[in-house]
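Hi V.,

Quick status before I head out on leave. The structure for the redesign project is tokenized and pasted below; the design run finished overnight.
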């Protein structure tokens, strides 16, 4: 799993790729520090190349959402595949995030 984070004019863009399973989510906790620091802005999680997400990965996305909500920012998730969309639907994450 890779988080490639780039600063954008409106906030931060994180390209998420690979498998966001339990071991990857633990490692990614440190990688998302720049996103949490910019939580007062718009954070876009581009999941074009995300193959799989576990409950630990969902918890990581939820951490980003909680931090942005506390600081007045916003999270947008885009380009999720059908399998991840099903996971988001079953867990209620479709209602928690702006999905594009």
């Amino acid at each position: 799993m890779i988080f490639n984070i780039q600063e954008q004019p409106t906030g931060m863009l994180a390209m998420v790729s690979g498998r966001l399973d339990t071991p990857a989510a633990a490692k990614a906790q440190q990688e998302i520090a720049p996103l949490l620091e910019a939580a007062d802005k718009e954070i876009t999680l581009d999941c074009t190349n995300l193959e799989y997400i576990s409950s630990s990965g969902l918890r990581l996305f939820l951490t980003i959402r909680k931090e942005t909500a506390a600081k007045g920012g916003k999270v947008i998730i885009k380009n999720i595949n059908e399998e991840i969309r099903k996971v988001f639907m079953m867990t209620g994450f479709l209602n928690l995030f702006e999905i594009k």
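Above is the designed sequence. The longest strand covers residues 42-53.

G. will cover questions while I'm gone.

Best,
W.
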